[in-house]
Amino acid sequence: MDKHIVLLPGDGIGKEITDSAKQILGAVASEFGHSFTIQQQEIGGAAIDQYGSPLPDITVQACQKADAILLGAVGGEKWDALPADMRPEKGLLGIRKELGLFANLRPIKGFPSLLHASPLKEHIIDGSDILIIRELTGGLYFGRPSERQDNGEAVVDTLYYRRSEMERIIDKAFQSARLRHNHLTSVDKANVLESSRMWRDIVNEKSEEYPEVAVEHELVDAAAMKLITQPSQFDVMVTENMFGDILSDEASVLTGSLGMLPSASVRSDGVGLYEPVHGSAPDIAGQGIANPLGTILSVALMLRHSFQMEEEAAAVERAVRECLEQGFHTADLNITNGQLVSTGQMTEAVLDNL
Amino acid sequence: MDKHIVLLPGDGIGKEITDSAKQILGAVASEFGHSFTIQQQEIGGAAIDQYGSPLPDITVQACQKADAILLGAVGGEKWDALPADMRPEKGLLGIRKELGLFANLRPIKGFPSLLHASPLKEHIIDGSDILIIRELTGGLYFGRPSERQDNGEAVVDTLYYRRSEMERIIDKAFQSARLRHNHLTSVDKANVLESSRMWRDIVNEKSEEYPEVAVEHELVDAAAMKLITQPSQFDVMVTENMFGDILSDEASVLTGSLGMLPSASVRSDGVGLYEPVHGSAPDIAGQGIANPLGTILSVALMLRHSFQMEEEAAAVERAVRECLEQGFHTADLNITNGQLVSTGQMTEAVLDNL
Ligand SMILES: CC(C)[C@H](C(=O)O)[C@@H](O)C(=O)O
Ligand SMILES: CC(C)[C@H](C(=O)O)[C@@H](O)C(=O)O
After folding, report:
1. Is B245 a catalytic residue?
2. Is B199 annotated as a binding residue?
3. pTM for the complete prediction?
4. Where does NAD(+) bind (chains A, B) (predicted)?
């Protein structure tokens, strides 16, 4: 198949880790007889430096023509003092919104050789395998008004959702649950928010269309507790944008290897943006020691979700797993009796296993 | 001193645990020469059953005349099907708002003999001692509009704060930090919300009035991670209502003994409502096996924060600690070689140590 990919390295370690991912894409293409054209554009701080905007038009236009987008990471102290509208994160929020990438998928599953680094006791984290689905283009993130009022004596943000926005993400969640263990936990704050009560109504309505999926409702505060005390009880979790931001980051530290976690932000036609969950880590940028595996696993998600290349995705995931079993680890990980390697060496190891 | 306390047992185990607390208050009064008058009123499901409202006028009026209020817990399946405005939780939200109890204080500190039950590894939870301060009467919880729009095709909730509401809770947090380890973590989502940017501005302004307090800003998603990976790095944490709801519940499971945690909801003149963090546990109600210690420790907070009785508060806290050291535990706890006791026996044990 021919696929067109836009690469957005972003800031900090973004360049190094997306370089690794490019090599993996090349290997998959030649191994499986595909053709991937890769075009690079700027986003975030790098785009501010070069174009004066965290999301220049040229980047948006390129992404609009892409089958999928791979992003490294954005942000860094250098741009922290800029006004809110000119901050690197605005590039990320902007591209999600411009492309309508409403469904953020975050699989949380540990690797046996890394679980010892979990902050949780082993019997608690053992067997956890969660897919968090977060609504990504609505709610408090984009509602208007979002402004100071009364000469700065008051301030307002707006949690706004259209019913159709809730319906499509909830549909996505039911469909994902059907491909996994038929268990969906919907998270809301229905005892306080009207938006949550509408959310809960829609989940209950939709559940009749997916009778094979068992549905639970959990309040966001209770979910934040249960992720820690009983993470293995979850299968698919679905929630709105802000709750999803908090809960998915909370969940991302449970397995003890944040640097390994991939994410996908997709829309209905399969176009998606893929990025590791970790940040731009400016403190170690340029040293060649960053962990490329979260980005490489994001490539696997791209192959699966945007290109329907399940076999290729599974091959990449297997190659990563084998590297860990062989004891290779970057500086952010620790494997007993393992071998500490650089970004480049880790990438080589994945290529060897592929 | 003469103090007037309103007791709101609420639902489920609420009656049993506030009965225990009443005995402790009696013992403190005679031990230290105070006079506490205690008047009982209904709230939550019990009030719905008796008065047709989760917060009847008679309860509000009684609370308005009180020096402090002690609450058990509200809620239960029995009332879950009622419309939102008639649910037990509305009683809790209503009394906070009616009395202007804007500062929710949640101390999170483990007990040595119970830490083994923490979901976290021992070296992670060790040494943690956090005070979470949550704004309790503003934000998404009370902002208007909170309604369906467009014939049910859309929905809106409103995150609204007045500057003065932010100022008073942030002041409270700085003052609390000064009484502890002079370290304040302010949690917001300033990269997305205008309300968070105003919040951050106010924290920075106020920090000049409290030069001895070191201030850190943390994004809410990062804070949700750090609570799990480095809980011992926090001293006082302050945040707005919804973020505080999520983070304080997340934090409450870290020590492994949710049943032990007290909370206070206070306003500037010292009037406060005190309640355990745990819920109404309808499944074990009436069996005499509930853990009364979260409520008894809430009494200690009442003595300290509403009555300025530091010595009395410390005595109650010491008595509770001694019970645990003696090995007494209720069914929700587990102490190696300890002795399983009932609600009444645990209360006796505290009284003996007092
Ligand atoms: C950078 C920030 C605006 C963003 C978000 O809150 O969505 C990030 O935390 C994320 O989760 O991707
Ligand atoms: C019962 C509910 C409305 C309440 C809240 O969200 O404030 C509870 O979760 C709490 O934290 O006291």
Report:
1. yes
2. no
3. 0.97
4. 76-89, 279-291
Torsion sign, CA atoms A195, A201, A207, A209: negative
Separation in Å, CA of B202 to nearest CA in chain A: 11
* Contact (CB<8Å) B229/A119: yes
Q: Of the CATH numbers 3.40.1050.10, 3.40.640.10, 3.40.718.10, 3.40.50.1820, which one belongs to the domain with range A119-254?
A: 3.40.718.10
| C-alpha radius of gyration, chain A, whole number | 20
Q: Which residues of A are catalytically annotated?
A: 141, 189, 221, 245, 249
Measured in Å, residue B175 CA sits from the centre of ligand 2 at 25
> Per-residue pLDDT tens for A202-232?
999 999 999 999 999 999 999 999 999 999 9
Per the annotation, the verdict on B249 as an active-site residue is yes
Of the pLDDT bands very low, low, confident and very high (cuts 50, 70, 90), residue A312 is: very high
- Nearest-angstrom CA–CA distance, A204 and A167: 11
pLDDT for B305: 96
Domains B1-108+257-354 and B119-254 share a fold: yes
Closest ligand 1 atom to A96 CA: 7
- As a whole number, mean pLDDT of residues B275-282 equals 96
> Residue of the nearest CA to atom 10 in ligand 1?
A245
Cα(A106) to ligand 1 centroid in Å equals: 13
Give B228's contacts in chain A (Cβ within 8 Å): 119-120, 228, 250, 253-254
Is B77's C-beta closer than 6 angstroms to any atom of ligand 1? no
Q: How confident is the model at residue B345 (pLDDT cuts 50, 70, 90)?
A: very high
If you average pLDDT over residues A243-253, what whole number do you get?
Answer: 98
CA distance linking residue A168 with residue B14, whole number of Å? 41
Tokens of B241: 């209502």
The Cα of B240 is separated from the nearest Cα of chain A by a number of Å equal to 13
Torsion of CA A108, A113, A119, A120, to 10 degrees: 80
Domain boundaries, chain A: 1-104+261-354, 119-254
Kindly indicate the confidence band of residue A236, based on its pLDDT and cuts at 50, 70 and 90: very high
In CATH, what is the architecture of A1-104+261-354?
A: 3-Layer(aba) Sandwich (3.40)
With CA atoms as reference, report the closest residue to B82 among B108, B130, B47: B47
- Three-state SS for A243-269 is HHHHHHHHHHCCCCCHHHCEEEEECCC
Using a CB-CB cut-off of 8 Å, the residues of chain B touching A225 are: 249-250, 252-253, 258
User: Per residue in A319-337, pLDDT tens?
Assistant: 999 999 999 999 999 898 9
Would you call B195 and A163 a contact, using CB atoms and an 8 Å cutoff?
no
Classify domain B1-108+257-354 at the CATH topology level.
Isopropylmalate Dehydrogenase (3.40.718)
Give the number of whichever ligand sits closest to the CA of residue B97: 2
Distance from CA of A35 to the nearest CA of B (A): 38
Report whether pLDDT(B83) > 90: no
For residue A202, is it left (φ>0), alpha (ψ between -120 and 50) or beta?
A: alpha
C-alpha–C-alpha distance, residues B317 and B328, integer Å: 15
